[in-house]
Amino acid sequence: MTTTNYQTVRVKKIGNDVEEEVVLESDGHELVCFASNRPASLEVSKTYPVALTLLVMDDYDITVLENDGNQSLERLDDSFAYRVVGSLIDGRLRCCGFEFKDEALETEFAYLNGQTVVMRVDRINVKFLKSSSGC
Q1: If DSSP codes are grouped into helix, strand and coil, which group holds residue 103?
Q2: 135 in a domain, yes or no?
Q3: What's the number of domains the chain is made of?
Q4: CA pair distance 130, 5, nearest whole angstrom
Q5: Which residues contact 95 (CB under 8 A, 6 or more apart)?
Q6: Which of 35, 43, 110, 121 is 20 to 30 A from 13, comparing alpha carbons?
Q7: Residue 26: how many CA atoms within 13 Å on its side-chain side?
Q8: pLDDT for 19-38, tens place per residue?
């Protein structure tokens, strides 16, 4: 199976108080992420190829929605945590123009493929990838 390991997003804001905080934008939706490898050359308003992964510190809290429901990203307080409502497709959670990868979604929750789910995550990590196009 071939899947895309990255997506292109726009950097909307770079955190002042938390050095690793980066706000990304895709399809008009914002997402506050944790960037452990933030490039020094990162610029606001520019687009970059990134890989987004989910961090769940304890047990996975996933609920299947009976109807397809609307996709949503709800930030919990002022933390990096989110409540995500999206579609689980081929081990990736797709929501509001973002695609999140998580090993457990590919293995332990593969039986939920094609379902709309609600998932609580402790943090969304972003990895900035090298761009061959000079974004």
Answers
A1: helix
A2: no
A3: 1
A4: 12
A5: 71, 72, 73, 84, 85, 86, 87
A6: 121
A7: 20
A8: 899 999 999 999 999 998 88
Residue 122 domain boundaries: 7-128
Q: Cα–Cα–Cα angle for 39, 94, 5, nearest 5°?
A: 45
Residue 133: CB atoms within 10 A of its CB come to 7
Q: How many CA atoms lie within 13 A of 22 on its CB side?
A: 28
3-class state of residue 35 by DSSP? coil
Question: Quick one: CA torsion of 81, 10, 40, 22, rounded to 10 degrees?
Answer: -20
**pLDDT band at residue 16 using 50, 70 and 90 as cut-offs:** confident
Tokens of 7: 């997506």
Query: How far, in Å, CA of 113 to CA of 92, rounded?
Result: 9
Type of residue at 127? K
Whose tokens are 């999206």? That residue is 86
Whole-model pTM: value is 0.89
Tell me phi and psi for residue 106, to 5 degrees.
-75, -30
